[in-house]
Amino acid sequence: MQTLLGTRTAADVNLVAQLLLLAGLILGFAYARQKRFDRHANVQTAMVLLNLVFIALFMAPSFYGYVVAGGSTTGTVAQFMIAHGILGLVVEAFAIYLIVRMRTNLIPRNLRIGNVKPAMRVTLALWTGLVLLGLLIYGERYLNQTTAASAPLLELRQLGADLYVHAVELQDAVDRRSLRAVTRHAEHLINLIEGEEGLRYGDNDADGHLEDPGDGTGLLARLDSVAAIAADPAVTAETEAVRTDIGRIVELSVSLLGVSAVEEATTLASEILILAQRASNEKVFAIDRAARAAGVVEAPRPPTAATMGEPGEVTVREDRFLFLPSALTIPAGTTVTWINDERAKHTATADNGAFDSGDQGLGQSYSVTFGEPGVYPYFCRYHGDVGGVGMAGTITVE
Q: What is the DSSP letter of 282?
């Protein structure tokens, strides 16, 4: 039925049907309260048997496509669907048992429930809970179009590693007794930490060359960016600890710029190495882990091209049942590569069928070069649908 109607339309039909079935069951319960037992039995039987039809045509295919075929056992929607599926089968089976118990003598006496009234009431209550859970699943899958917060985690880890590398090179310069190399690496550490917006950023060793081994943004700015996006106490605490250490490294590096002999740099360089090792190997990677635990994903890298506005390459990550970024604007001729970063299977499938990755397992990639200007909406066959439903994205080619 999903193939015929589409995932979203099929879900809409099933949602309305489930609400009507619940209303019918409540009506049947009202008949029982009025002691109109024939009508009660007929209505309840019709509702339970109709539900079997909707299980077969709508709910089972939806569960299979999202959870089984899509390999999805994590995530809010998948876990709710699994709980709904298990509880739903139990309730439906018990409802069928009650119908057979009331209307026939097929059930052996030793397996019959004596007083069926409490059992009916429990079944109706559980059925109501299932409908509410179904509403929650519908809302999470089709109405709550969430976007994951992304932060420059890769850049943060790289700058953390670079910090330690240049602290080691500074120590090596001291061991080689090269004062010129000591002041040069002191400049490297200052610029790498502070970035272009820093007060001390520049040609600190006054050799006529401004040298920045980082990305120009600076480790401090990357730390602040990740902490602000994560908005998590654990990330904030780790960030403050790192800021203290690297702030001290900047102070020591500034002091190194003023030494007149290598012997004066020994103690300073040793302290810098200890601080850099702690900041890089422990704290920066702890921030990365804490940010991911708080729901932050790695920000996709921008398109690479010879010059701005020219075609290049861009990566879209498939993570947490989202395309990251979900909206992308690129120049014609750019190659887009989708990479699956989670265990659930995904696809990158154009709404109009112009491209289709097929199943992508963990770590698998798929690339398309977009040569013609236009808007290309796409979705995951397992976790989205045409029209921007669920796991879906848009590529605009200029």
A: I
Return the pLDDT at 272: 95
Cβ–Cβ < 8 Å for 347, 360: yes
**Number of residues that this document lists for the chain:** 398
**Confidence (pLDDT) at 139:** 87
Instruction: Report cis status (omega within 30 of 0) of the bond before 325.
Output: yes
Coil, strand or helix: which one is 46? Answer: helix
Mean pLDDT for all residues in the chain: 88
Nearest of 95, 115, 97, 93 to residue 44 by alpha carbon: 95
Query: What DSSP designation does 204 have?
Result: T
CA separation, residue 93 to residues 39, 52, 84, 100 (Å): 22, 10, 14, 11
Q: How far is CA 246 from CA 116, 218, 241, in A?
A: 71, 11, 9
Burial (0-12, 13-18, 19+ Cβ within 10 Å), 35: exposed
Reference 213, options 271, 165, 256, 277; nearest CA is 165
Give me the amino acid identity at 144.
N
What pLDDT score was predicted for residue 306?
39
Model pLDDT, residue 132: 95
Place of tokens 């290598």: 262
Burial class (CB in 10 A: 0-12, 13-18, 19+), 136: middle
Q: What angle do CA 156, 161, 165 make, to 5 degrees?
A: 145
pLDDT band at 295 (very low <50, low <70, confident <90, very high): confident
Closest CA to 378 of 346, 352, 342: 352
Average pLDDT, integer, range 138-154: 77
